[in-house]
Amino acid sequence: MSTDAPVSAPGALGGATLRTQRLILRPQEVEDAEVFRRLWTERDERVPAHRKLDADGHPTVADIAAHIADADSERSDLLSVQDAATGELYGYCGLIFEGNGSANEPEIAFELLRSVHGRGYATEAATAVLAWARSAGHERVWASVWEWNVASRRVLEKLGFVDSGCDRPVGAHGRNILTVAALLSAPAVGVAEHVVIVEHDALTASQTAMLRDLFDSEYREEHGEWNPDRPYGYSPADVHTIVFRGSTAVAHVGYQRRIIRVGRHDVPVAGTGGVLVHPRWRSDGVGRRVMSYAQQAMRDDDHVEFGYLGCRDEVVPFYERTGWSQVYAEERHVSMTDPRATVTSTGPLLVFAASANALGGGWPQGDIDLRGTPW
Known about the structure:
The protein is of the alpha+beta class.
């Protein structure tokens, strides 16, 4: 096992949201405690005592909820797994950074309710987690599994895990097999494209480097090197939606949370910018997909009522095809080069209704003040 410095710090995955065809993997919430408690009750009798409920029934739902809510507890890298269509919670999947691997070679862990076993959800969720690990620069991921746990062993085999050959003594609970999967040299089966939705402060160094490669390939010659905290003079994103192909970032949409002024109204928006698709992938719909993922992130964001952006005339049709609507107003914003100056925009402005309030009330009438620099 490698002993190099960690590629991504513990907690990095815990700040991300991953999406697959059927699932959403998101940070844990207090309301998840009830399902997590059910997982404890469903475990095989052969697991060690520390994985079972104790004689007094601990941990209780309240115990688990308190741990999730504790701001001082270590940030978990186990994401809650829920149905993308219904929102039903199935369990968890993620990484353990203090498991059998070294700091930069984490261990994968997953556990889903018995009622959804046999549907391929564990493989689908774990595939997304391994794709994130690859994009974060991890070369290998480990997994330990009991020899009698045939279902989990099959999942790991599908994901490319093999017996590491590290012999472990057979104990009272049976043989525990330590497996390993190489990520960068041999991508997990079925991984062609994956999406990561991550807060700006939770970007790993590897993900930042991949975004820099994406933006520099398009803009470096004209605008210089991309700076994540001041991208070409625009306001930085709070949330990044990134589509990866293997270990390459091929598409990005960012948004910043801000309350802007529209006429006499304060409007919470997701100021959208940094919309970019790598030239090699501009003909297969990845632009539409990354925008769809970003729009869903806006819907899930309690601090946002509308998506908002300004753009060039020639790209208005793209945004309209993906659910944005053009509005007609004068926009004012702080100059990107002189913070004392105010600039009036003359380009198209588009909005996207991201909340029930937005759908009910509609976009307000009046001129627009961004109260800062544009995105």
